[in-house]
Amino acid sequence: VTESESLSDDDMSTDGDSDHQQREPMSPCFSTYIPLMRLVQSVHHTKKRTEGVLKEGWLLHHTNTDSLRKRHYWILDWNTITLYQNESSEICLSEVLLVRGPSLDLSISPYSSSSSSSSSSSNSNEGPSWESVIRQALMPVQSSATANQQGQGDSMYQIFTNEVLGSGQFGVVYGGTHRKSGRSVAIKVIDKSRFPTKQERQLRNEGSILQSLSHMGVVLLEGMFETPDYVFVVMEKLHGDMLEMVLSSEKGRLPERITRFLVIQILEALRYLHLKHIAHCDLKPENVLLASSDPLPQVKLCDFGFARIIGEKSFRRSVVGTPAYLAPEVVSCGGYNRALDMWSVGVILYVSLSGTFPFNEDEDIKQQITNAAFMYPRQTWASISLQAVSLINNLLQVSVRRRYSVGKALGHCWLQDFDLWFDLREFEQRMGCRYLTHQSDDEHWREYARERSMELPSYLLRDIDITSPLKV
Predict the structure, then answer these.
(1) What was the pLDDT predicted at 236?
(2) Is residue 302 a contact partner of residue 243, using CB atoms and an 8 Å limit?
(3) Residue 198 assigned ligand-binding role
(4) Percent of all residues in the chain with a pLDDT value above 70, rounded to a whole number
(5) What is the mean pLDDT of residues 70-87?
(6) 176-183 — which CB contacts under 8 Å span 24+ positions?
(7) In the annotation, is 282 catalytic?
(8) Counting beta carbons within 10 angstroms of the beta carbon of residue 340, is it exposed (0 to 12), middle (13 to 18) or buried (19 or more)?
(9) Which residues of 161-200 are buried (b: 16+ CB within 10 A; e: fewer)?
């Protein structure tokens, strides 16, 4: 496969491989291209949290870095500790408590406290009492079994609320650590108060789906835990995401070699999900995690909060996903199936190669998608291969029937590339696991190299005994 062909207006037909249509004239508003950016979704509070003071009273306290004892009136609720010098003057907590770095052992308190000799009622057990209540408010992540067996103080994970890894409609993802081993993890904290009570069961959807999955291209779920106010989804912590990689690249977009390497991993993960009748429903670069900072990194899909179990011929109608990456049938509230993920792959491929979104939200997608001059402006797409444009066209098909499936996308000529196979085989050798290429393809590429007098390293043709652990 070569990439020497340049794009002409005729080449950039935005229809599929067949069924060409007459192009619409370009609308004046089509002159503005929306740059790629991180999209933030938000949810308004729909259920008011029960307000209440967990504990209040006068307290003498000091820190392990400042032995000077200070006396303030403490009020602790589910969200904050507020300290007062008197009944009306609030002071910042940072002026009183100084905690240096995360503590992996909750048995070591970051402060010492004792009851004051004021007229307020107090006793010698006031310090430990405050410690116990603060632990309760700090959202320790533990299973109910662990809580029953080990007590409230031995939580399994520590959340670092100052290390925000990401956020979405269903919660915020923080950095964290497994207390016993010190292993870094990512912890999604889902606040139940942000959703109606009848939807709380849906909040557990992500964990229940992830628990059934085992694939090198899907983020690993370590555990799912729950308190009366929160759901915690604990996952492996990876390096970053695909959007960050695109935005930080020199030209604000990725070369075809890197994009191929990432997209084929996305497709292999989707093939696994679709075989299990699971549609991700919210594919976007933010949900494509990278395991390292390598130029050709391992990819893992994450954020299954919108994922749905969808049968071979089934259609769902609930609103899901992020609008910029959503298939037209979802935006129009029509029925959708697993093909909606393939549209999202098309958008991911487009934004990775161009650094811009393909559509103007103020205009009809059907009109835009048939307008090659708008979809593929020459200043960006002249250097991009016809094969890449062809795959995008077949993924961004408004007709679900004509849109490429995972299998068709993987078989497209843009992904049947020697350099890609070479990169994948080297990657699999490093991983010690063959899950992106197949042994049956080796002879084809061996012959391809022989015809071009190219020397193949013997280790690329050596099969790996270790195989990817997959649950079917």
Answers:
(1) 93
(2) no
(3) no
(4) 59
(5) 72
(6) 176/141, 176/234, 176/237, 177/102, 177/104, 178/222, 179/104, 179/105, 179/106, 179/155, 180/156, 182/104
(7) yes
(8) buried
(9) eeeebbbbbbbebbbbbbbeeeeebbbbbbbbebbeeeee
Catalytic residue among 191, 282, 341, 417: 282
pLDDT band at 390 (very low <50, low <70, confident <90, very high): very high
CB proximity list for 257: less than 8 A, separation 6 or greater? 419, 420, 423
> Mean pLDDT over all residues of the chain?
74
DSSP run (H or E) holding 248 = helix 242-248
Rounded to 10°, the helix 339-354/256-275 angle is 170
Say whether pLDDT at 95 is over 50: no
pLDDT in tens, 436-465: 999 999 999 999 999 999 988 888 877 654
Q: pLDDT tens digits, residue range 174-231?
A: 999 998 899 999 998 888 777 666 566 656 666 677 788 899 999 998 888 888 888 8
Q: What are the structure tokens assigned to 320, written together?
A: 């899901």
Yes or no: say if 372 and 30 are a contact pair by the CB < 8 Å rule: no
Coil/strand/helix, residue 385: coil
CA-CA distance, 467 to 465, in Å (whole number)? 6
- Look at residue 127 in the predicted model and tell me its pLDDT: 73
| Whether the Cβ atoms of residue 390 and residue 412 lie closer than 8 Å to each other | yes
Task: Name the residue with tokens 């307020």.
Answer: 120
| Sign of the CA dihedral running 302, 306, 311, 312 | negative
Q: Alpha carbon 133 to chain centroid distance?
A: 33
Q: Whose structure tokens read 């670092």?
A: 160
